Amino acid sequence: MAHPALRSLGLAERNRLFAARLVHFLDDMTLTEHRIVNVAAQVIAENRLRAFIPEVLALDALKLYTDEGYHAYFTAHASRSIRQAFGMDLSDGPNLKIATLEALVADTPAERRDMAWFMVGFVGETMISKAIVDVMRATAHSGVQGMLLAHLEDEWVHARYFAHLFEHIWPRLDAGSQAFFGRLLPRIIAAFHTWDKGFHQRILGDAGLDAAARDRVLAKVAGEAPQTARMRGRCGNTLQVLERCGVFNDEALREAFVQSGLIDRDRMF
Ligand SMILES: [Fe+2]
Ligand SMILES: [Fe+2]
């Protein structure tokens, strides 16, 4: 919003742009809760990872499943209220991030798919708190802030739960599985940050920017360097869990994270 091409926008246009981004975030969150996180929760709740997780921890996944269902409900409700207030249409096109995550799991061998879903849940749930905090900082509306805070309080618990499960699972994986999932993890982190160029083009166009101005604004935020910085800013908690579990002690796995731009070769974060 600080880009020179956006400085000429009036208050109403700026508010509309903020609202469009907030609706996009909320709609993405609604889908992520029930299409992504709750698939991981189902895998755990059905005890499909019984070789790695005690049953009592599997039972807790049903509580998380309920939380996420309610988050999806109140997030969708808030999105609808904002759309109505600003006269925005419902955007029900495909969500690139969800499609990328689902394709990533679908590409894994069938016998590894349950664990791949767990890894997706682990990454998403250890990153989401930071994403919510970032949006709270960019929002002045007290009702929206209250809703996000209620969500955040649950997500702190969920992040601890998934971190605890990962600590159970990682040392019990055989060397081949550690090699496989250790390389999958940075790809999952990247998939969670899939950039929706079409959406950003559209909202900037709605705000009255011509194609050249849109490209100038998006070049600042959509390039490889800013995208990598965005990923690193969000996944600190995830990387800390991986470090605690010794994932980066493996040279090849450490290199996979370095190549993804998530850690430096000579320094951790
Ligand atoms: Fe949630
Ligand atoms: Fe959650």
Automatic annotation (TrEMBL):
Gene3D superfamilies given in the database record: Ribonucleotide Reductase, subunit A
Superkingdom of origin organism: Bacteria
Pfam name, any one: AurF
Protein's UniProt name: p-aminobenzoate N-oxygenase AurF
Source species: Hydrogenophaga laconesensis
Phylogenetic placement of the source organism: Bacteria, Pseudomonadati, Pseudomonadota, Betaproteobacteria, Burkholderiales
